[in-house]
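Hey, I'm writing a tutorial for new members on how sequence and structure tokens pair up, and I'd like a real worked example in the thread rather than a made-up one. If someone can provide the structure for the chain below, I'll link this post from the tutorial.
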Amino acid sequence: MAQRRVMPSMPASGPGGDPAPNTEADLERRLAEPTPAVLDALRPLGGDLVVLGAGGKMGPTLARMARRAFDLLGRRDRVIAVSRFSSPDAKSALRLAHVETVRCDLADHRAVAALPEAPLVVFMAGQKFGTMDAPGTTWMMNTVVPAYAAERYAGSRIVAFSTGNVYPLTAVSAGGAREDHPLAPVGEYAASCLGRERVLDCTSRRDGTPMAIVRLNYAVELRYGVLVDIVRAVLRGDAVDLRMGYVNVIWQGDANARALQCFAHAASPPFVINVTGPETLSVRDLAEHAGRLLGKAPRLEGEEARDALLSDARRSVELFGPPAVSVGQMMAWIVDWLQRGGRVLDKPTHFEERRGAF
């Protein structure tokens, strides 16, 4: 087995004494702040930027990061967030941040064909949870919708979100699947995500569209993510399931920044990259660290398997450097947030699922 990584005890402050986010406005601001590397990546790439599927957990902060980057670069190019926008609040918040919004059902081919022109496109649409109950909808969202988007924006630079779920479970001792690892998705959701990648690869080669495919797992902020699931379980006295005993995570702001930097690497055939943290993290150690921060012993259930859903982030680190927010920092901030009663999205990640049933 790989050596477990033990989280150090850390105060709820960041590098240089940066305090833990204490309001949602502060959290949203931090998640959307572009790095100098994002500015460097976008500086030579002129024109408007469209974010397709911008109403999800990451889309609003990514759209605002792009808008903020354009502002810092002195650009008047538009950032346009496209979604069904089932939440009017999400739409209003984006407009307050000077992000334009377009309401669109991305499964409607004619509606997608009528979307605004843009030389820069981030594709974030997809479905995971509910696959067991409505597999047809999942396949529609994860394979047909990307085809519509790629057809509409043929020739534009496209950064498309995928997932590490396209990999099989790999031996923990191996340190995770690299981008050239044979793909063998577990379960119908993961298979549909591989379908999305195949469709994008086909259209990129056919149309010469430069693309980057971002295999993400798992993005974390203070209201959602694997670390939030673990800390909440310890705080409530619930059992932490150890069957999927090892994970990779990355701060959502770092994931957003890496995705925007991928515009500079878009190519045909697509450039593929794992976006996650560089550490193989023990769920047991994370739970025990949460317990130390909370002053409460965790309840642990089950035994770690010898394999897990893991990605090797070496290419990401080589290109973009290490993530700015460490795992220890995330843990300290999440504990602080939850102890103060901060709002959570209450959407479990089900990271412990080993059969791919979502």
